[in-house]
Amino acid sequence: RGRGRSSSVVSSRSSYGSSSSSSTPIIQRGGMSLVKLNSKMQEKASSSSSIHLEDIPENNPLYAQLQEFITQKQSNTFATIAREDTTDDMKTYEKVEKREIIFLLENSDIQRREEPWKIFQRYLLNGLYFPGESYKTRKYYETLLISTGVEFQHFSGYNTGENVYNFSKMIVKQIIHIEDWGISSMTERQISLNNVKMNFTYWDYIQAFDKVLCYNNERHKHTWFIKICAKIFANPMPNWFLNWWSYHGPTIKILPAPFLNLYKEWVKISPDLNKLYQQDHIPYLQQIEQICFFIEFSIPWIHKWIPEVDFTEEQIPCLYRTFYNNFWDKLMKKDPQTKTIYGQELLDQITAAVKEYKSIPNKGIMTNDSTSVKHIARRISNHDEEEQNRMILDYLEEVKRSLLSNLNHYAKSDSSMHSEASEDIMQEAQQIEDEEPADTLKRAEELLAKLKEKA
Description:
Layout: E1 9-10, E2 24-29, E3 32-36, H1 39-47, H2 61-75, H3 78-91, E4 94-104, H4 116-123, H5 138-146, E5 150-155, E6 167-172, E7 189-193, E8 196-200, H6 202-211, E9 223-228, H7 239-248, H8 257-269, H9 271-276, H10 288-296, E10 301-311, E11 317-327, H11 344-359, H12 373-381, H13 385-413, H14 415-420, H15 423-454
Parallel strand pairs: 6-9
Antiparallel strand pairs: 1-2, 2-3, 4-11, 5-6, 7-8, 9-10, 10-11
Helix pairs in contact: 5-6, 8-11, 13-15
């Protein structure tokens, strides 16, 4: 996967038909080769004396040994290894919950349910993996994004054509907000593709982030390396980008232990998250913390997709695009020169940020007097049960201290008024003043208990 993943290749060297070698590779895959014996070796083998398995009695010890040997050889065939490698490869990926409807199918296509790639050929041009205007190709969307701050690199195998990619890189250096586009979202910008001037609007720009990833090679093994640069974290993320992430972005489930442990520290103290919790509405609340973590530290991931035939809620057959994400495993591999893992610099960067955030004076869960219970609940809800219990206790303690502080303040400011009032009025006022904080604290405890049950 990514840059370090080798690809299957078919050898087309001139030695393929030569009789000078008895082990000329026909197919090579990583460290495995499928070889063809020359005719002289085959004739020699056929003319020599041989023994057949059926001639050996089952009670003979040699029979069991030969059976074990044959089974082992069958499991080591090129086809078996290729199949197992594909299965194991998919097991390492996290399947994204959401999937995209590519297009609806007719009932006659149900019989091709196990051949989704062939359905593409039936409905679209060869090599095209999404419907739409014929001139808006994947290359059109890529050129569009390059002109607006996205970098692409494509890598081909030595035996493939120039435009056949094994894997690709997409590095997002800029996200344009609709306010920065122009007078209108329909304001057109221009690109040049194959020496032809072509226009695009803001809506084309949004679509480009999806369409540009709709590439695959003839082996259906293409992967994307995706990274979002941290500088876009300086501005609020558009909601359409959060929606894009729900299809193509990863979650912390793909993180190895060193990164996951740092995330658990960072999420408790990030000042940007504290600011985020103060907003009246937070889209994609269940994943927003994880999105911020990946973007703030520009953590890359590996992305891929496959087509699947399934049915909509109305039982209409359709072709879905299912997405998968994986951690870029090179970050956890050791550099032979430095003897440290390639991702050590990134881990050090996150560690330094966590240390800096911890040095900021702790203002408690109630960051200011205007912090509402809803904002507090947002902050608490995205933690595990043990952490939620601790944060609820801390919050109740802060509420108690705040109430007692206000009681003392009001008691001092009202002392002159109390001295002028009659004794029965003072007793009545004191009774009301004593009961109000207790009732408020009780209501706060009941509300937080309900929030805990829902979480």
